[in-house]
Amino acid sequence: MKFCKKPVVIEATQYDGTAEGNRKIIDLLRGSKTPAFMDTVIRNCTPEHPDGFDYPVLKISTLEGDHLVTPGDWVIQGVAGEAYPCKPEIFAATYEPA
What we know:
single chain, alpha+beta, 6 strands
């Protein structure tokens, strides 16, 4: 069987990676089923720096687990109040302004 997706109007905000952008997303999702929060990620492990470097990142506690939000991602609020990040190219192919 084939199915078509129902037309649904969503709320979405594009994340810019700034401290102000962090606060905007965290405030937007405060009290929701899927809140956003700041976390620390270790990256760039090299022989000279085996422990890598810590840096802060924005994450959303989605229904499937914590997801990293990167600059340019859209944060979508779904029909059931859940939120999740969406890559810009997927967002552009899937959504248009209402």
